[in-house]
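Consider the record:
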Amino acid sequence: MPVRGGFSLGPKKYFIFPLVAIVLVFFLIIGLNVYLSNEIQPTAFAALGVEGSPERGEYKFTIALADQNGTNGPADGYIALKIINIGGEVIFNSNFRVKSEEFCEIKAGTGVGLIGYSWSVPVANLGSKAGGGRGIAEVMFLSLYGNSITGTLEMDLPD
């Protein structure tokens, strides 16, 4: 019985090659997604604002995100908005998911173009306890990376 000097997998090689190829393709796809992604890991708001009034019938909230280097850009995450009246009562509470593809160019207070996200809240959604006067809107952005950013805004409330 002759002894061969090489190593042979025999029919197993037909099973191992596709398995290795699938794993390599998987890592290649993940690597390309990370490389081509334009998301940032936000650490602060580059812009935070609210426009509108009870007379207009809606409030338009706008955010723009920035990372630790001050770079503005989009990010996947969740937005939580809480509006509190002058008596300290929560009159509106909402949270929703946003995707980086939903961000677009916005104009900041000085007319500077930033990448941001805007959404509207109808005055009718604020509830009956608005009480008029001034209120506070607390806006929180929670990125899928785990970073949380919070900011507050003053706003006029309906009677």
